[in-house]
Write a structure and sequence with these properties.
The complex is a heterodimer of chains A (534) and B (449). Chain A has 534 residues and is of the alpha+beta class. Chain A is built from 15 helices and 16 strands. Chain B folds into three domains: 67-107, no CATH class; 109-332, no CATH class; 340-448, no CATH class. Chain B contains 22 helices and two strands. Classes of the chains: A alpha+beta (534), B mainly alpha (449).
């Protein structure tokens, strides 16, 4: 796996607190602005109107009727079907009919090619369902207002918050229906495309990663990282062979459940090799794994193992090991009282290097069936659909359809990994060349990012303006979700099961976090706006 | 118009479409294959070989993809190139290959795309892997990719050359060349059951002979479509140079029998009788002449007409012979036909093997005999020019290095006089030659270790 699972970690407590602060501030701003507006237009009476409205809104929220919501959901659902939402299946069908043409030869499938197949299916499903949901949720309410058909609903004893909720649930359900059909077809397509002899490659490995990785340099001192061998991608750090350089993993909560049916601890690695000289190219580089317990002064080292670069290498470590003719039990003698197992990896070959990152060594638990991970990935897509639906519907209560669609798409686009990270870099000043105005000036004047700007008042204004924009961006960064949490297909296509703590839980939390603000915003906008097309 | 109903307007649009379609159909009417040339557009397409089928094999999926993207091809290609770069940096090779496939489907007739990606797979990606069979797999992927590029772009001269170059240079001259050359004939992938990969080597030939075929095809194409890689005289020397590479490779692998002698003989004939007799339009400053690299004085006089012209032609022949290293390879080919030369090669090869096997006394004797053999040949006036070329000098000096090292290690006194001392003195300031000799020696030492 070439991504760091750490990246996806989310602290639930801090996240909930953050959420409360952001939603609280947003609610306060909206209510405060409304109150000031009413005061400005209606005088002291406006304050009374504000509190009356607030009371009614609270009453609406506390008197929701599931029956009415369900009726509105069905209405939305029927409307979506009438608007030919299911026509997306035609594109889907066409893509899958001809996909085989573009996927290369299936006669000799290698493990990393399976990744391409799974990735193709899940990406196609995502990119076909997202636009359908986006269009449905952004154009539904504005169209109803334009055609005045919304009056047939609002004149019924239905609360406006129920209209918003009914829309959201209805559109999400139709999204889920489309998604489920595509997912079933996609699953069969994958299984059919992979030849029988390569079917074992369709699996979901369950890794237990070390809590962290520590490095020791060639002199035996603790180091922040290993050697950088000049890779552009600094994901891995390298340790030098036949020196004191080591990488140490600490695995926590190690107990009997980590053993396989034969009583082995399965360690899987994907180390990388780097040669400072080529030497005998027919001989691979070697590493060994050492288990040690400093409290008992015990250490067990495996035989040298060849590096199997860019592939997975499984080392089965028996629970019973012999050190100096005495038999020890890894779980009893090497796991310390904190239930931690210390594992040290070293490179055997002189002047050669082995590269590793935290996720490059893990304990492999029994695999889960492929379908399990696949459907978890589908769950991730369905949660993305829900998120888009909520944002889209609440946006469509405020602005017209096309604007709502653009707004929702931009929010989604900014939530993607690279874009969100770029936003982070801008906010934290890690992008060379300054903010918006400064970079425009540099572009026009052909100035490099490291060149100093002339010192004059005009540039102070530019910098101040950029500072303001940056602060606005800071706000956006906290409101725009990080959709990488939902990227469960990445785990499955890399042959892993989708983990609860680093993927499913964060994505559920993020989705839940948007429910209350989106419903409230949609309701608030629908309540205060005039339901007439102009 | 404003009084028209919607139906009437639609009818007028339909009539307009049909009216406009008539000239378009007439202009692009295809040929019936029985003599009628078809419409003007069809004729122009055939004349300038612009039809998809004229450019190379038709790939239905590529055409479908381009069609489906409508006008968004450029944007899609940009995104794919960006992805490719990122996948390469993060070492996601399978995805990178899949992206490469998508790019060539979108840009099937952009030769540089095939060239760049073929090189990327054969040279950059292969070097990222540690195991030699893995490296070879990616070299093969690069060669296969370029071969597909040729099939899609049959008019391209340069892609023939690039394919040949990977098979010749990457397979034959990489650090892992010994293994690659074996794998080229006996692929390590069990799928091929010990035989060659039929896609790049259907007849199970030596890599240099396969490369020669690619270069020959490139030279044939070059007659109708010029290339922009090398000077024409160098470009057209590539098939013959492959034969020299082949002969040298046989020697390097310890084959000194009839097969090697025949290889040198074939190379000499191809060099002097085929390549040497090709006509090149030589440009030396403002002067232009049609020359051959193998030209007698009589032929020069005949072509020139006047003594001044003869001088100009002779000057051009000389300049082109220097540029293509023509005289060296001709002399070398003649020298290699000498039994003493073959014996000298054999003894130096024995010296290397004995050194690797730590049989130092045998190695010292064999190295000395090899050095002595070369000393005698290189001192002959007709072969004196062989010292101008690095490869042979490096072989000779590697023999000296082994001989000298054994003396150093054993603590024996190195004799004052020894064969090839003069060559050592001549080349010891040449850092490139001495650097290569030391590098080759270090490899022997590491093998020994």
């Amino acid at each position: 796996m070439y991504f760091d699972p750490n990246e996806y970690l989310l602290n639930p407590v801090i996240s909930v607190l953050n959420w409360a602060v952001v939603v609280g501030c947003l609610t306060f701003v909206v209510l405060f602005v409304s109150m000031i507006n009413l005061f400005a237009t209606r005088g002291a009476k406006g304050i009374g109107i504000f509190f009356d409205e607030l009371g009614e809104m609270a009453s609406d929220l506390f008197h929701l009727s599931p029956r009415r919501i369900w009726a509105l959901t069905r209405l939305t659902y029927t409307e979506a079907i009438r608007r030919k939402a299911l026509a997306v299946f035609v594109v889907f069908g066409l893509l899958f009919m001809f996909a085989g043409w573009f996927m290369g030869d299936t006669k000799e499938i290698k493990p990393d090619q399976v990744k391409v197949y799974i990735s193709f299916v899940l990406t196609t499903i995502s990119w076909l369902t997202l636009p359908v949901v986006l269009i449905l949720c952004c154009f539904g309410i504005p169209e109803d207002i334009r055609l005045r058909s919304i009056h047939t609903v609002v004149t019924k004893p239905a609360r406006r918050v129920e209209i918003v909720l009914g829309r959201m649930i209805g559109i999400w359900l139709i999204g889920c229906l489309v998604l489920s059909v595509m997912a079933v077809v996609g699953h069969f397509w994958i299984v059919r495309q992979i030849p029988a002899e390569s079917q074992p490659l369709l699996t979901c490995r369950v890794p237990v990663y070390g809590a962290n990785i520590e490095f020791i340099d060639r002199e035996g001192n603790s180091a922040r990282a290993g050697v950088n061998v000049g890779d552009i991608w600094a994901f891995r750090s390298y340790i030098e062979g036949a020196t004191k350089a080591r990488a140490i993993w600490i695995f926590k909560n190690v107990d009997e459940s980590f053993l396989d049916s034969e009583g082995n601890l399965n360690f899987e690695n994907s180390f990388s090799a780097f040669r400072s000289y080529k030497g005998d190219m027919t001989r691979p580089l070697f590493y060994d794994i050492k288990f040690f317990n400093p409290a008992k002064n015990l250490a067990y080292t495996t035989d040298p193992q060849p590096v199997n670069e860019f592939r997975h290498k499984l080392d089965k470590i028996p629970n019973k090991v012999t050190v100096d003719d005495v038999q020890y039990d890894i779980l009893k003698d090497f796991v310390n009282e904190k239930k931690e197992l210390l594992v040290e990896v070293s490179c055997i070959d002189r002047e050669q290097y082995i590269g590793m990152a935290r996720s490059d060594l893990f304990i492999r638990m029994p695999d889960r069936p492929f379908w399990m991970g696949y459907w978890k990935a589908i769950l991730g897509i369905s949660l993305t659909l829900l998120l888009i639906t909520m944002i889209g519907v609440s946006a469509s209560t405020m602005v017209k359809g096309p604007i709502a669609a653009v707004l929702t798409f931009v929010i989604y686009f900014l939530s993607l990994k690279d874009n969100h990270q770029f936003m982070d870099q801008l906010v934290f000043g890690r992008v060379e060349g300054g903010g918006f105005l400064e970079s425009v000036y540099r572009l026009v004047m052909h100035m490099g990012p490291s060149q100093e700007l002339p010192a004059n008042p005009a540039f102070s204004v530019v910098k101040f303006f950029d500072w303001m924009l940056n602060n606005f961006l800071w706000l956006c960064r906290h409101v725009i979700p990080y959709s990488q949490y939902f990227n469960m297909p990445e785990f499955v296509s890399n042959g892993f099961d989708v983990p609860w703590d680093t993927s499913i839980l964060p994505s559920l939390l993020v989705t839940s976090a948007f429910i209350i603000p989106c419903v409230l915003m949609g309701y608030f906008a629908l309540r205060i706006r005039e339901l007439e097309s102009k | 118009m404003t009084n028209m109903t919607s139906q009437q307007r639609k009818l007028i649009y339909l009539i307009g479409i049909v009216v406009l379609l008539i000239p378009i159909i007439w202009l692009s009417l295809p040929s019936d294959g029985k003599g009628a040339p078809g419409g003007v557009l069809s004729q122009l397409r055939s004349k300038y070989e612009l039809g998809e089928a004229d450019l190379g094999d038709v790939d239905a999926s590529s055409a479908a993809m381009n069609f489906a993207l409508l006008g968004m091809r450029g944007m899609a290609v940009n995104v794919l190139w960006k992805d490719l770069d990122q996948q390469k940096d993060t070492k996601r090779w399978a995805e990178m290959q899949a992206t490469t496939e998508s790019i060539v489907r979108l840009q099937p007739h952009f030769e540089r795309v095939w060239d760049f990606n073929g090189w990327n797979l054969a040279y950059n990606t292969s070097a990222e892997w540690d195991a030699v069979p893995d490296r070879y797999y990616w070299v093969k992927q690069g060669a296969k990719f370029l071969k597909r590029g040729v099939e899609r772009n049959k008019r391209s001269t340069e892609l023939y050359y690039r394919t040949g170059k990977v098979v010749q240079h990457k397979v034959g001259y990489a650090d892992e060349a010994t293994d690659y050359r074996k794998f080229f004939v006996n692929d390590p992938d069990p799928v091929f059951k010990g035989g060659p990969d039929p896609v790049i080597n259907p007849d199970g030939k030596d890599n240099f002979l396969v490369a020669r075929e690619w270069f020959e095809a490139g030279c044939a194409r070059e007659l109708s479509r010029p290339q922009h890689i090398l000077d024409r005289s160098l470009f057209r020397s590539t098939p013959a140079r492959c034969l020299f590479d082949y002969a040298q490779a046989l020697q390097k692998e310890g084959k000194f029998g009839e097969e090697t002698r025949a290889a040198w003989d074939l190379a000499r004939k191809d060099w002097t009788e085929s390549y040497g007799r090709e006509t090149f339009h030589a440009l030396i400053g403002p002067e232009e002449s049609d020359i051959m690299l193998e030209m007698t004085d009589e032929e020069i006089k005949q072509q020139a007409g006047t003594p001044d012209d003869a001088l100009r032609v002779r000057k051009a022949v000389d300049a082109y012979q220097k540029m293509t290293n023509y005289r060296y390879w001709r002399t070398r080919a003649f020298a290699e036909a000498e039994p003493e030369m073959a014996e000298a090669h054999r003894r130096l090869f024995d010296a290397k093997q004995a050194y690797k096997a730590q049989e130092f006394e045998n190695a010292r004797t064999a190295a000395f005999e090899g050095m002595d053999g070369f000393d005698k040949i290189l001192k002959r006036p007709e072969y004196a020019s062989l010292t101008d070329e690095d490869i042979l000098c490096e072989e000779c000096l590697l023999g000296w290095k082994i001989w000298d090292d054994i003396y150093q290690v054993s603590g024996d006194k190195i004799p004052e006089e020894f064969p090839l001392k003069w060559l050592l003195q001549m080349k010891q300031e040449n850092q490139m030659i001495m650097g290569n000799v030391n590098k080759q020696f270090k490899r022997l030492f590491l093998d020994n270790k």
